[in-house]
Amino acid sequence: MIKFRETIKENTYHLQMIAELSGEDISNDYYCGYRQESPFPLIKLLKTNDLWFDYKPHLLGHPDIIALLCMISYYAFFCNLVSKDTIIIEFPRPISVNCAKAIETIYYYDPTNKNTKSKKIIINNVSSSIISYGEWIKLNKVTGDKPKIGISFGGGLDSMAAHYLFPKAYLIHEKNYKNMDYTHTMIYNKKYGKKAYSIESNNKELCTMHGWSSWISCVSTSLLLSSDLKLEYIFLGSSLGSVYLNNGRKFFNAHEKPYVNHWYKIFHEVGIPILTPMAGFSDLLLAKIIPRNVLLTQLNYCTFGIDGRNCHKCWKCFRRDMIISYITGKPIINNIANIVNMDNINNINNINNIILLYETNETVRRLMEKYIMEPINENKMPSIGPTLIYILMQVDCRENIKKIYPVWIHKYAKAVNTHIRAMGGLDLDFIKLFYDKSTKLFEQYNIDIKKIINRKLSFIMKQISPMVSKDYSNLENWGNS
Ligand SMILES: [Zn+2]
Q1: What is the distance in A from the centroid of ligand 1 to the CA of 328?
Q2: Peptide bond before 39: cis, by omega within 30 degrees of 0?
Q3: pLDDT at residue 358 above 80?
Q4: pLDDT average, residue stretch 189-213
Q5: pLDDT score at 109
Q6: CA–CA separation, 188 vs 440, rounded Å?
Q7: 254 Cα to the center of ligand 1, angstroms
Q8: Does the pTM exceed 0.85?
Q9: How many Å lie between the centroid of ligand 1 and the Cα of residue 169?
Q10: If phi over 0 gives left and psi between -120 and 50 gives alpha, with beta otherwise, what is residue 249?
Q11: How do the domains of the chain map onto residue ranges?
Q12: For the chain: N or C, fewer Cβ within 10 A?
């Protein structure tokens, strides 16, 4: 049996998993599994599996919410358990019947055995006298109040765009206690107002490899605050690339099965749906939604640089910097003010100096060869996704864009453009247009939240046109050739 325990120590909230059968002892490496996120590496739960958050829920958190928090935090380590007939679980407090039913459907993704599913989850403490989180929210809702939304806020391109589209939503950030974190500092300095929270945690340090045990852990802090803030919805900033394009690789029809991701289904059934209102926008469009000064100075997509700011050395920073330079025509100044004279940011040599940082960076250069040159040499499409392909094509054929980027990038831009032309051209208009079919993702939800999302989307569609039939076709066939 697996038992979860919660404790409150001064101002921190703690969860711990306790295994009760010998042979399943946490000290035996029995609790291991695949990180529930591509590329699904094998991870082991650390013996001291005490998960803590620097936040004490005033209402202690609805028991259903705490049960979800337990499951998203520890389920990746259940690989050895899913081959058994039953998994018996006891949560810190009894949960509602609704929540128990939803949790019983949890699916374990094992990349080595795609048929593996948990046989049966038996929850030891279910109580018919506990009302589900969703019902509890309805009881506590003041008539006429708008739905309360929390954005799981990382501070990067997607969640920042969600913030600018839905400025009244709460921003909820998780800070790793080990790292400096610029977004945390900005929230702490009230840069994002009273409705922004940054919670310190060891959530990314629970296992043998740094990082969350599952992609869904990005909502942990939103869950922890949900009972206090009476949150009805959690928004993720996930863009077109992550919802429909498998991060640029191949189109994936997110509408085909109504609840294609089982976590979305479970959260919906417990009464705190996760929505992705930015799913119709490419990264290029997200960058257009964010004000330029914020793009250049506040956006934080990596924490490995000075003071937890963007490092401008890694592949993620490189991809983002390529987009931001394209949209603004300016260098990225936020964490490299010490390198660039701030008064001279329009100087082309300075732009070159910044992007030159990447030129001397082995990782970025190696990946440029791997994702661009190797596929081209094999007569395949570069595997960098449509946005970066589009930008590189523009760099090669438009002088005013070319001069923003340094000479070493021109070589890759030329290779991409020449290859695409030889293949007969490529219509990438779809990354500049809104994928209005994404509104299908919200069809099943309450009219109140649909109104909020649709009002915002129709406002943005005054500036960004929707795709037409040829664009649907180009997007929906992406990765098929
Ligand atoms: Zn970086």
Answers
A1: 19
A2: yes
A3: no
A4: 94
A5: 82
A6: 37
A7: 29
A8: yes
A9: 27
A10: alpha
A11: 2-131, 315-422
A12: C
Q: Residue 296: its pLDDT value, please?
A: 82
% of the chain exceeding 70 in pLDDT: 91
pLDDT of residue 58: 87
311 CA to middle of ligand 1, Å?
A: 4
Q: Tell me the per-residue pLDDT of 363-391, one tens digit each, with 9 for 90 and over.
A: 888 999 999 999 999 999 999 999 999 99
- Distance from the CA of 300 to the center of ligand 1, in angstroms? 9
Per-residue tokens: 408: 């070493």
Instruction: Tell me the pLDDT band of 332, cut-offs 50, 70 and 90.
Output: low
How many Å lie between the centroid of ligand 1 and the Cα of residue 309?
8
* Mean pLDDT across the chain: 89
pLDDT of 14 reads: 97
**397: CA distance to ligand 1 center in Å?**
28
